[in-house]
Amino acid sequence: MVIRELLIKADKILSDNGIEDSYNESTILFVYALNKSKTYIYTHMDENTDADTELKFLEFIKKRSKNMPVAYIINKAWFMSLELFVNEATLIPRPETEGLVEEVLRIIKESSKEKVELLDICTGSGCIGLAVAYYNKKIEATLSDIRPECIEVSKKNILMNNLEDRVKVAKSDLFNAFDNCRFDVITANPPYIPSEDIHNLENDVRLYEPQTALDGGPDGLDFYRNIAAEAKNHLTINGHLFIEIGINQSEAVKEILRKSGYTNINIKNDNSEIPRIITASGTSSLR
Description:
alpha/beta; seven-stranded mixed β-sheet; 38% helix
């Protein structure tokens, strides 16, 4: 089939199945089916494609028409300009989480330490710890998750981004593998969706992203309580905790941290002016 006609066909399939921006998504999927650039596609619209590419592309379109996210179809996502491998074992990195990385980098920049030890719990794809380490060479990071599938994805992303000299992985249920360890920075983007709200999520998320990485218990705050109770035992004296929070959770999480003895608790908004990141520590700076 001619490329132009194939894209029109794919666009209609996606549009008929309620996929917004259907033509653009069709083009992206064709880029990965053909393994060529968008520029190549736009300049060869009237050429035929081979049968294998057409079959692969239409299989991509079939998956997307059933709401499978593009990132899972092509096994790629981008975070802070880093290319990452993702699959259905991990959440797809989201732009709002980049604000957490930016805040960590800002605080680390103020530090006079030659080496900063970071622990990223509930790491999933490893996006937070990897991005911090990539953009600040004094970071030595440990990425941890309870799920072996996430550990494997994180390992792959460490190698993809050439960070194996400063980033390692560990299997751990929150802090249970770090009994005698302390870190200058602890980061976390834990599950925070209230259990009863899972069924209200968009189909792309509800049907494909791992529920264990979404479900934060009855009120969405279970992981914050556990993190608050344990993180202080694994922070250096001047260490910092950085956590992502869900909508309308900022005051509740702030109170959990306050009652657990943390100080310098600050709430940061994302680019949509939604409270999204909480930082806490025992002192005012990482020095």
